[in-house]
Amino acid sequence: MTEAGENAGVGETRRVRVVLVDDHRMFRTGVQAEIGETDRTGVEVVGEAADVDQAVTVITATRPEVVLLDVHLPGGGGVEVLRRCAPLMSAAENPVRFLALSVSDAAEDVIGVIRGGARGYVTKTITGTDLVDSVFRVQDGDAVFSPRLAGFVLDAFASTDAPPVDEDLDRLTQREREVLRLIARGYAYKEIAKQLFISVKTVESHVSAVLRKLQLSNRHELTRWATARRLV
Amino acid sequence: MPVAAAPRTPHAPDADEVPQRKLYRSADGRMLGGVARGLAGHLGLPVGWVRLAFLLLFMWGDGLGVLLYAAFWVFVPLGVGGRTGHRSFFENLPDGTRRLRKPDRGQITALIALFVGAGIFISKVQAGGASGRYVWPTLLVGAGVVLVWRQADNARRAHWSTAAGRNGRLFQAARALAGVALVGVGLTVFIVVRGSAAQLGNVLTATLAVLVGVALLAGPWLIRMTQDLSEERLMRIRAQERAEVAAHVHDSVLHTLTLIQRNAEDVSEVRRLARAQERELRNWLYKPEGTGKDEAEEPATLAEAVKKTAAEVEDHHGVPIEVVVVGDCPLDERLAAQVQAAREAMVNAAKYGGEGGPVQVYAEVEGQTVFVSVRDRGPGFDIDAVPGDRMGVRESIIGRMQRNGGTARLRSAPDGGTEVELEMERAANTA
C-alpha cells in the first residue's frame, strides 16, 4: 500500500517472526525471497508448513508473531488452522496473529477466514513491499483490508434493511463506511488519512472496528447476505 | 365431438418447428399425457388432427384409441419440445402480486367438449343397463391411473424446471393420494359388484397377506438396489464434473500456456494472456452455474457491465484493472451511458497511468444513485492544460454524463494519480 515507508523505518529496530503456511513450495520460496531477502525489512521467516497439521505443529512450536496463511490447504483449509490455533490467538502475551494470503478472492473464502479470526486478507498479487507493510500492520494489531475485501464488507453491511436488535453493534458507522469505501477505491491508509483529515492511526482504528464487527458473527445481515448468495 | 380438437389447432403447425427424429411425448401444451402433441411434432401434423384420429379410433374402433394412447403413454419417454415456458396455475402481475392464471380459451372449450362427450357416453351406458355395473368401476380405475401417471410425468418434468415450491409438492401428494384412492375404490367396487359383499373381507385378507409376503421377500433387495442405483448415479455425476473441468483446463489453460511460451520475450503480451486466462478461470471456478462460461450476450446488470468493460479494456491495453462492485441493479439507458463514460476513463487510465500499478475501478449502487470511480496511480494531469481539440475527457466522459443527467468529476488523487468520479441517478421506472 505505502512504499515500506514509516513502518519499515521503525522496523530497523524490531523484527517480526513469521510462519508461512502454503501448500505450494514454489510460492513459499517466492514469498520468502521477497520478504526475507534484506535486513531492511526485518521480517524473519521462522517456519513453513504445507498442510493443516504441519501448520498447527509449527505455529505452536515457534510461536511467531504473524502467520501468513493460505486459504486453500490440504486437511481442512485455512479456517481449520484458525480454529485449532484459537487459543494462541487470544493468548495474553505474544498473541499469534494471522494474515490470510490467498490467490482466491471469492467472497466465501474471504469472509470465512476473517470470521475465523484472521486479522486481514491480501491476495497473492500483492507486491513484496506491500506485504511487508501488511505484516507489520497486523503485528501491531491492526486490520489489513484489500480493496476487494472492503467491497465484500460494504456489500454485506449495505443493502439490507436494518434489523432492530443490536443496531449500534452491528451497523457500520458513517465514518467506517467512508473509510471502507476509500479502501475499496484503492486508497492506501495514508491517503485515506489525508483525504478525510484524520490521522493514519484513526484510519487503522476504524478498520479494526470494522473487522471486529465482522467477527462478531454478525448475526443478522452477514448470515442473510451469505445465505442469499448460497455461501453457507 | 370434433369440437374437442378444433380449438387447439391454432397452436399446432408452428409448435414444433425443430425436427425431432426421436419420438417424445411433449411436456408442454398437453391435455393428458402429451402423446398427441408429441406425435404431431414427430409427424409434422397439426396436433388437432392427431387428437381427432385418436378420438375417432376411440368412438368407432371399440376403444382402440384408448389402448393405443395408453401404450404410447407408457412406452414413449417424456421430452421437452413444443412450447416452452413453465405454466403454473398462478401468474405474476407486473405489480408483483400473484393471481390465478386465466385459463386460455382453448382449454375452456376442451373442457366443455369433454363434459359433453362424457354426458353422451353416460347416457349410452345407462341405456345399456346391466353393463353399467362394469363400466363405472372401470371408469374410476381409469381416472385414478391417469391421475397417477400424469403425476409421474410431472415429477420427471420437475427435473427441468426449478419452479417447484412447497405448495406444488403438497398439491402433488394430494393428487397422488386421490389417484390411489380412485383406483382402490374402483377395484373394490369391481369385486363387490361381481361377488357379494361377504366375500370382500376374504379377498382383502388374502390380498393383504400376499402383499406383506412380497414386501418381506423383495423389500431388502429392492432397498439395496435403489441405494446402489443412487450411489452409482452420484459417481457418474462426479465423473462428469471432473471430465468437464479437465476439458476446460485442457482447452483454455494449456492453450494459453503454449501461447505464453511462444511469446516469452514479449512481456506485455504474456501479461495480457495471463490476465485474460486468470479472469476466465476465476469466472469459471467461482461463478454460479451457467454464468461466466460464455459471455456472448449483452450484460443485463450494472455489475456485469462494469466487469465486462473492465475486462475488455484490460485485454486491449494489457494493464491490470481491479474491479470492486458493491450492490447491483439492472442496467438502464442512463447507466449504460455511465458505463460508457467509465470505459473512456478506464482507457485513459490504462494508457496514461498504467505504470503506477493496477487501475482501480469501484462501482457502488446506493439507493437510486450509482457511483463509479476509476483511479490510476500515474503522473496525473491537468484538465485545463489539455488542448481544446482533444475531446476525450471533455466529451466522452464529462459531456456524456451531463447529457444523461449525471455528474463527472476529475481530480488528482493524493500522492499522484488521477481519479474520475461518475455519479448518476437511476431512471425512475426501474425503482
From TrEMBL, chain A:
Modified sites of kind 4-aspartylphosphate: 70
- The UniProt record lists the keyword rRNA-binding: no
Q: Which GO terms describe its molecular function?
A: DNA binding
The answer to whether UniProt assigns keyword Methyltransferase to this entry is: no
Q: Residue ranges of the HTH luxR-type domain?
A: 165-230
Keywords attached to this entry: DNA-binding, Phosphoprotein
Name this protein carries in UniProt: DNA-binding response regulator
The Response regulatory domain sits at 17-139
InterPro entries linked: CheY-like_superfamily (IPR011006), NreC/VraR/RcsB-like_REC (IPR058245), Sig_transdc_resp-reg_C-effctor (IPR016032), Sig_transdc_resp-reg_receiver (IPR001789), Tscrpt_reg_LuxR_C (IPR000792), WalR-like (IPR039420)
From TrEMBL, chain B:
Histidine kinase/HSP90-like ATPase domain sequence ranges = 340-425
The protein's GO terms of the molecular function aspect are:
kinase activity
Protein name (database record): Histidine kinase
- Sorted alphabetically, which PANTHER family does this protein's record hold? NITRATE/NITRITE SENSOR PROTEIN NARX-RELATED, OXYGEN SENSOR HISTIDINE KINASE NREB
Q: Keyword set for this entry? A: Kinase, Membrane, Transferase, Transmembrane, Transmembrane helix, Two-component regulatory system
Question: What parts of the sequence cross the membrane?
Answer: 39-60, 66-85, 106-122, 173-197, 203-223
For the region Disordered, what residue ranges are annotated? 404-431
Annotated Phage shock protein PspC N-terminal domain ranges read: 21-77
Q: Which domain of life is it from?
A: Bacteria
Annotated InterPro entries: HATPase_C_sf (IPR036890), HATPase_dom (IPR003594), Phageshock_PspC_N (IPR007168), Sensor_HK_TwoCompSys (IPR050482)
